[in-house]
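Hi support team,

I submitted a single chain yesterday and got back a structure, but I'm not sure I'm reading the token output correctly. Could someone confirm the output below corresponds to the sequence I sent? I've pasted both exactly as they appear in my results page.

Thanks,
R.
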Amino acid sequence: MKVEWLDRALTTCAYYYCLCTSEKQFVDECDRIKLPTWRQTQWISPDMHATTHHFIHDGKPLAMVCIQPDPTRTGIQIAALLVHEAVHIWQRHASYIGSHNDHGDEEEAYAIQNIAQNLMESYWEQTK
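Hi R., thanks for writing in. Yes, this is the structure output for that exact sequence:
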């Protein structure tokens, strides 16, 4: 019998999260998951470059990261915005599971890296 290597993940983010790169995408996803209209919010405020909307829907914590692609932003600026939003997801995850700041520094760094990488890969796939 062949050896099967197992997943190394020690924890899974409690939040389901996605990236929306257009207002239409955001509204369509809110409609698809049947988020009540009164729960829907503005995609991105005019004074923001990106935002994360947090919801509890059907008992599941959701985070919808919204960013408007802008050809005047550098890749570094986009990455920094997505890391910023990844930190918000991690903070909500920690609060949701009741651990607040008692994660080790390394666990927190890996978690934020993973969330940010997923957001960046999604951004790349949606905008290439």
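A quick pointer for reading it: Residues 16-127 form one domain. Let us know if anything else looks off.

Best,
Support desk
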